[in-house]
């Protein structure tokens, strides 16, 4: 049995846990963290594992994996910044909110312009 | 056999993301759920291509990842309040 199946199974477990966190977490920001971290590692390991199982496909799968690894944090950062600016509320258990200054500065810029 | 189990588990993950996309209270919830669902779907397409022995699925998943990256950034710019 090829050892690429183990790499693919590791990635599949992380993909399922990321989706479960997307369903269960109470807040947009918690959901964004669970979705982004677990999904990036899971997709990378799954796609590279398929390339190890089928060696003639390796370079194509390598390109897809590197593309996912580069672009998934960028789009998640843009979505998190957008949800902070459009004033989505935090959940009630939040202790520290360091995004308060960022949104208020953005409001002042809007008022001046 | 093992690949079938993997595909079923990833399909359950896609269904959970779609449930969050239906339930989500605000618009950024739905955008985040869509972004996660698409990344899971790219891995699912590569696994389906492995089971069916068709190499075309790799190209399909690459194009799907590129287009959805552009779409997510565009949705984020829209939620920030317009493109300046």
Number of structural units classed as domains of chain B = 1
Mass-distribution shape of chain A? elongated
Return Rg of chain A in Å. Answer: 19 Å
Number of helices of chain A: 4
Q: Return the structural class of chain B.
A: mainly alpha
Whole-number tally of structural domains of chain A: 1
Order of helices and strands of chain B: HHH
How many helix segments of chain B? 3
Could you estimate the helical fraction of the residues of chain A in percent? over 70%
Beta-strand segment tally of chain B:
0
Q: What percentage of amino acids of chain A are in beta strands?
A: under 5%
Oligomer: heterodimer
Distance from first to last alpha carbon of chain B? 52 Å
Main sheet summary of chain A: none
Rg of chain B is 15 Å
- The proportion of residues in beta strands of chain B is under 5%
Number of strands of chain A: 0
Overall mean pLDDT of chain A: 85
Task: Calculate the terminal CA-CA distance of chain A, rounded to whole Å.
Answer: 64 Å
The description of the largest β-sheet of chain B is: none
The interface involving the most residues is between:
A-B, 47 and 45 residues
